[in-house]
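User: I'll paste a sequence; please echo it back and then give the predicted structure.

Assistant: Echoing your sequence first, then the prediction.
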Amino acid sequence: MDLSHGVHQTTMVYLPKTTKKLKKIIKVNYGKDINN
């Protein structure tokens, strides 16, 4: 839960090119979690 908050804050602070990479990583992580 703490990691989730940190990731969200980091994403809000670092909204440059990392957004696409983070989105892809989050999509994969969330997709796996949802699929499971």
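The mean pLDDT is 69. The chain has one domain: 2-35.
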